[in-house]
Amino acid sequence: MNAARWMSVLILFLFVFSPSFLFGQRGSIRTVTFPSSDGGTVEGDLYGSGTRGVVLAHGAVFDKSSWGKFAESLSSEGLQVLAINFRDYGKSLPGSDPHGLYRDVLAAIRYLKENGIRSVSIVGASMGGSAAALAAVEAPAGEIDRLALLSPVSIDHPERMKAQSFLFVTSQDECLMPQVKEEYEAISGPKKLEVLPGNAHAQHIFASHQGEKLTKLLVQFLTAPER
Question: Please, what are the domains in the chain?
Answer without folding.
Answer: 28-223 (3.40.50.1820)
